[in-house]
């Protein structure tokens, strides 16, 4: 410690060497890498002025596995399995995008039965992901009960997945040309008679518990404002961009598989704050239920997989395929030299672009609001780091 | 906008562009020095209005590097792929993060993985790798005797 004579001149002014210390009220704190509100190993270096955020600087790479480099030595059948580990909450949709890319490049006709199963699986994954986000986001803001409510319904869903795919999280169910095998014999019954009625009977509980809660509304209304122009400029996609009024649903704009046959609405909010992002995801759950209901009882008979060669070779060229994951647009960019492995592969992950707007939307707000903004961005760290 | 109409518009902006078809979208090749003014016009032009940069990456072709920008317009719904050939020993290109702000993070990723230097980038630091990392991991000749797994 300093003695008072070391700090102050005789006229009670600070000595020159301490002036800089006093004038700079900036205070730097670290959130993470291990922090319950970051849901993974995300490190944020936050510069504060009092309680007001001046800058948020994300420090990434704690779970970087260089999936892009790894895929350069994997075949077009193998590289799908790695992508389950990127955004592990929408692993079906990651697999779907990769399978679609190979099918597009080789012009494989996918049987209708496989297309139906894939879309149902995608939407079940979206519901599971949004449920987990809902519980975890409420927990970030101090409400513990929603977490158990969300996991109560999600548990049945993971059991259904386990029956069919053999895994609860990293499904690896979709392969080039269709799906790996037929769904479990009780799959249709469990989805249409057990899961959907259960979820529909519980949705009003979510609304009562969190959406209409005045404490929650005060935490999120007007917090983390992202305008329409900024959402586009920052490359945001998915619910984050749709909450700012951007029409960016890949299922509507560039439909794949049977998405052009089903009726659903693209959920759009225009407020752009945390509450809008929350409402988009809650309404997307209802749209996903509607999509599944249209398909689940009408799965056509037939093959679940198209016949493809044992060794897949993509023609020389560049291919880009996108799919709408629970977080936004996943883009798979493959540069092929005509061999059995990709020459270069790039995953345009939705989380990476969505994270880049975090500094912008939290600047000037209080540190307590950071968690509300970050929670409604729905970041999954392995998806950002890849 | 149709591909032919896009070609006419883009040639008006920059006469030296070359086109390549065959893929899903129109590929546009530009010189590194022309890229920044060309990019500014792509966003500013009312007919083109490319406001959404949805993918920014780099490809190592062993003899040279190629920057790949996927651009689309949220208003007109057309897409182009802009490619920029860079020298492999001293790859330098102007940043576009003041036009599309998503480029700031993507350029930092390309900087550490490929060693491309982005001129006038506000904060060109390593993003994913540790600050003391040596080498550019996504280049084809990268060797790491400890961490690399050969399959």
Rounded radius of gyration of chain A (Å): 24 Å
Q: The biggest beta sheet of chain B, please?
A: 5 strands, mixed
Strand content of chain A: 5-15%
- CATH class category of the domain at 3-94 in chain B: Alpha Beta
Number of domains of chain A: 2
What is the share of helical residues of chain B?
10-25%
Q: Please give the number of β-strands of chain A.
A: 8
What does this molecule look like?
The complex is a heterodimer of chains A (386) and B (151). Chain A is mainly alpha-helical and 386 residues long. Chain A has two domains: 4-56, no CATH class; 65-385, Cytochrome-c3 Hydrogenase, chain B, CATH 1.10.645.10. Chain A is built from 17 helices and eight strands. Chain A has helices spanning 4-7, 16-23, 67-71, 79-83, 91-106, 112-140, 145-165, 187-211, 214-220, 228-233, 239-242, 250-253, 274-296, 350-356, 358-362, 367-377, 381-385, and strands at 26-31, 43-49, 52-59, 174-175, 178-179, 317-324, 329-336, 344-348. In chain A, a hairpin with a 2-residue loop joins β2 and β3 (52-59). In chain A, α13 runs parallel beside α16 (367-377). By secondary structure, chain B is α/β, with parallel strands linked by helices. Chain B has a domain at 3-94: 2-Layer Sandwich (Beta Polymerase, domain 2). In chain B, 24% of the residues lie in helices and 27% in strands. Chain B has helices at residues 3-13, 32-44, 103-114, and strands at residues 18-20, 26-30, 52-60, 64-72, 79-87, 92-94, 117-119. In chain B, the strands form two sheets. A five-stranded mixed beta sheet of chain B has the order 1-2-5-4-3. Chain B has a two-stranded parallel sheet with strand order 6-7. In chain B, β6, α3 (103-114) and β7 form a beta-alpha-beta unit. The longest helix of chain B is centred in the N-terminal third of the chain and has 13 residues, at 32-44. Chain B starts with a helix and ends in a 32-residue tail after the last strand. The A-B interface holds A 58-61, 64, 66, 68-70, 73-74, 230, 232-235, 237, 246-248, 253, 317-320, 329, 331, 333, 335, 343-344, 346, 348, 352-353, 355-356, 360, 385 and B 22-25, 51-55, 57, 59-60, 68, 70, 74, 77, 81, 100-102, 104-106, 109, 127-130, 137-138, 150-151.
């Amino acid at each position: 410690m300093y003695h008072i004579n070391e700090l102050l001149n005789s006229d009670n002014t600070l000595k020159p060497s301490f002036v800089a210390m006093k004038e700079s009220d900036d205070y730097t704190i670290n959130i993470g890498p291990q922090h319950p509100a970051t849901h993974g190993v995300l490190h944020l270096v936050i510069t504060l002025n009092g309680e007001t955020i001046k800058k948020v600087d994300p420090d990434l790479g704690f779970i970087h596995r260089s999936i892009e480099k790894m895929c350069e030595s994997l075949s077009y059948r193998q590289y799908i399995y790695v992508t389950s580990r990127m955004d592990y909450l929408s692993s079906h949709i990651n697999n779907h995008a990769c399978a679609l890319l190979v099918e597009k490049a080789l012009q494989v006709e996918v049987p209708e039965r496989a297309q139906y199963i894939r879309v149902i699986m995608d939407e079940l994954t979206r519901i599971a992901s949004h449920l987990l986000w809902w519980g975890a986001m409420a927990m970030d803001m101090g409400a513990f009960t929603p977490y158990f409510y969300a996991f109560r319904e999600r548990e049945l869903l993971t059991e259904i997945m386990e029956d069919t795919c053999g895994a609860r999280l990293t499904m690896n169910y979709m392969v080039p040309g269709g799906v790996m095998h037929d769904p479990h014999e009780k799959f249709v019954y469990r989805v249409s008679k057990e899961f959907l009625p259960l979820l529909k009977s519980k949705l009003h509980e979510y609304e009562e518990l969190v959406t209409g809660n005045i404490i929650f509304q005060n935490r999120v209304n007007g917090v983390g404002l992202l305008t329409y122009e900024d959402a586009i400029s920052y490359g945001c996609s998915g619910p984050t961009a749709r909450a700012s009024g951007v029409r960016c649903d890949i299922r509507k704009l560039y439909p794949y598989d049977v998405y052009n046959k089903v009726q659903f609405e693209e959920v759009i909010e225009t407020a752009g704050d945390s509450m809008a992002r929350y409402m988009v995801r809650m309404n997307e759950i209802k749209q996903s239920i509607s999509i599944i209901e249209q398909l689940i009882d009408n799965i056509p008979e037939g093959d679940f997989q198209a016949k493809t060669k044992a060794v897949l070779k993509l023609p020389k060229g560049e291919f880009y395929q996108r799919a709408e994951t629970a977080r936004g647009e996943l883009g798979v960019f493959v540069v092929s030299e005509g061999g059995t492995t990709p020459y270069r592969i790039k995953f345009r992950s939705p989380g990476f672009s969505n994270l880049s707007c975090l500094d912008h939307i939290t600047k000037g707000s209080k540190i307590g609001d950071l968690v509300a903004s970050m929670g409604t961005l729905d970041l999954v760290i392995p998806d950002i780091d890849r | 906008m149709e591909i032919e109409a896009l070609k006419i518009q883009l040639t008006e902006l920059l006469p030296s562009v070359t086109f390549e078809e065959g893929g899903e979208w129109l590929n546009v090749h530009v010189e590194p020095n022309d890229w920044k003014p060309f990019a500014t016009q792509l966003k500013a032009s009312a007919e083109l209005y490319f406001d959404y940069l949805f993918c920014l990456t780099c490809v190592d072709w062993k003899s040279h590097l190629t920057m790949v920008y996927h651009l689309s317009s949220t208003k007109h719904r057309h897409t182009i792929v802009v490619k920029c050939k860079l020298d492999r020993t001293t790859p330098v290109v102007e940043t576009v993060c003041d036009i599309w702000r998503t480029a700031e993070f993507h350029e930092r990723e390309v900087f550490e993985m490929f060693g491309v230097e982005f001129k006038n980038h506000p904060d060109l630091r390593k993003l994913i790798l540790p600050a003391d990392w040596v080498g550019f991991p996504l280049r084809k000749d990268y060797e790491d005797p400890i961490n690399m797994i050969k399959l």
